[in-house]
Design brief:
- It is an enzyme of class 2 (transferase).
- This is peptide chain release factor N(5)-glutamine methyltransferase.
- It holds the Pfam family MTS.
- It is a single chain.
- The protein has 284 residues and is α/β, with parallel strands linked by helices.
- Helix content is 42%, strand content 20%.
- It contains 12 helices and 9 strands.
- The strands form 2 sheets. A 7-stranded mixed beta sheet has the order 5-4-3-6-7-9-8, with helices on both faces. A two-stranded antiparallel sheet has the order 1-2.
- Helix 1 packs parallel to helix 4, helix 6 packs parallel to helix 7 and helix 11 packs parallel to helix 12.
């Protein structure tokens, strides 16, 4: 058996050699051991339990080979909620937590007197956004859709895990909502927005679903689809919220002006100062 300190230092060195952030090692050990980080540091000079050491070494071997830590664990954390993940859904990103926070803020100011807010998360994937909004805003009547049946099954598991009441649909973009005659106060969409030819890290390309990554030649395919059909599902006073690529401000701004000339919009920066969130305000 090895000391916790030796285990961590050895794998931090290997991680650096592989170009993997060294903090991944401690983060994985914290999750695997189900102990607080400070507690591990207090016992750094003690021997790790044999079974934990074995599982840790096997898992770190997979991580060092490029597999995402969330896939090795089988889950990821998002907005304080545990989200099960696999190769059929995107691993929830920290940037998307900021999108959720801004949606919640705008719901408070946009609909101060509504007792029920009709909201849908289109292209829900793991269901991270839908679960978070449903749990954080009790007024939400939450729907979620995805073209992938496998993704919807994972999203349903996450809804059950977090005790979130969500109505799920399988179908392409807005089609299920249009077919069922659903009208929304808030439409949320984190669409695939990476241009088809853009190079990506191998850990993303090799392990995450391409259908959830690439948005056509210019990355804007799914924004066009939503903008084209939005008037068929939006209430008179409503808004849409999207995640976007950090370098798409000019192209998306032009697209909105062409397709939704009567709607006001704003593009927000994330904590790193990059353009990452789009809000479109509808007053039809």
């Amino acid at each position: 058996m090895s000391l916790f300190r030796k285990l961590v230092l050895d794998f931090e060195k290997k991680a650096l050699e592989k170009g993997i952030p060294e903090e991944t090692v401690m983060a994985y050990l914290v999750e695997l051991s189900q102990r607080e980080r400070y507690d591990l540091y207090l016992h750094f000079e003690e021997e790790a339990p044999q079974e934990l050491e074995k599982e840790f070494c096997l898992g770190m071997g997979r991580i060092l080979n490029g597999e995402p830590m969330a896939h090795v664990l089988g889950y990821s954390w998002f907005y304080g909620y545990k989200m099960l993940v696999n190769g059929e859904v995107l691993i929830p990103r920290y940037e998307t937590e900021e999108l959720c926070a801004n949606i919640l803020n705008r719901m408070d100011t946009f609909f101060p007197h509504l007792e029920k807010i009709d909201i849908a998360d289109v292209g829900t994937g793991s269901g991270a956004i839908a679960v978070t909004l449903c749990k954080e805003e009790k007024k939400c009547q939450m729907r979620a859709s995805d073209i992938s049946l496998e993704a919807i099954e994972m999203a349903k598991k996450n809804a059950r895990l977090n005790e979130a009441t969500i109505e799920f649909f399988v179908g392409n973009m807005l089609d299920p909502l249009i077919e069922k005659g659903i009208y929304l106060d808030v439409l949320v969409c984190n669409p695939p927005y990476i241009p088809q030819e853009e190079e990506m890290e191998s850990s993303v390309v090799d392990y995450e679903p391409h259908i959830a990554l690439f948005g056509g030649k210019d990355g804007l395919k799914y924004y066009r689809e939503v903008f084209e059909n939005a008037n068929r599902i939006l209430k008179k006073k409503s808004f849409m919220a999207f995640e976007m690529g950090w370098n798409q401000r000019e192209a998306i701004s032009q697209l909105i002006q062409e397709m939704l000339p009567n709607d006001r919009f704003e593009i927000l920066k994330d904590m790193n100062g990059k353009d990452r969130m789009l809000f479109v305000y509808h007053n039809g």
